[in-house]
What does this fold into?
Amino acid sequence: MPAPAWQYHEPDHPGADFDALAEIYDRNMQKFRDVQGEIVEILDFLALRPDQSILEIGTGTGEFALAAARRCARVYAVDLSAGMLRYAEKKAQARGVANVEFLQDGFLTYRHEGAPLHAIVSQIALHHLPDFWKQIALLRMAGRLAKGGKLCLRDVVYSFDPVKHGKFLDEFISEASERAGPQFAGRISDHVRNEYSTMDWIMQGMIERAGFETERAKHSHGFFALYLCTKI
Ligand SMILES: C[S@@+](CC[C@H](N)C(=O)[O-])C[C@H]1O[C@@H](n2cnc3c(N)ncnc32)[C@H](O)[C@@H]1O
It folds into this structure.
């Protein structure tokens, strides 16, 4: 069935062309993020059992999906980008992981038809949607979980004081340049200028209105947030 004319067209999102970037993106993430630490943080919260299935939306190069697959029966790994999925699928083959299903789809269009889900995870992807559509995406995620199901959401979410945004962003971006080089700092500027990252209080409100209780929220550098939530 075609999407209604008023629905946000997900592939039009501003930001990087992920199709062309998979390998570089994967390398940069290993360099600039504590990818393994982030995975452990989420897996500890999920406490997956071998009979459970989970969904990851915006799986990218699949690092989380592949780690989670070793703890549960099946991972449905959804992403809009064919290039990212191809790259993730190759990693799965190289690592001998066979229980991840890679699916090209989006937050607003993916229809889950597999086994009931224990949890949904999304990292650094929801900011690709404008706020209204983030709310719709969160409602759709809640709709796919039973009571007690888990949501782990990590994203670029602003918890700095917007009154002082100029000073904060200048300092944050200049520190990033010192730590990781001007190209990386440029990507942060691009993100702030073009992408749909929202403020923490708005994100918390949207999570709550979608029917989740936030059990733990962790903020880092005023710029990133992780919400570990349960469907009520
Ligand atoms: C910044 S990457 C994050 C990848 C990975 N989750 C990580 O933490 O490194 C964002 C990913 O979200 C995907 N994406 C963007 N908009 C999306 C949407 N509406 N639905 C599903 N995936 C989307 C992109 O193709 C890209 O692979």
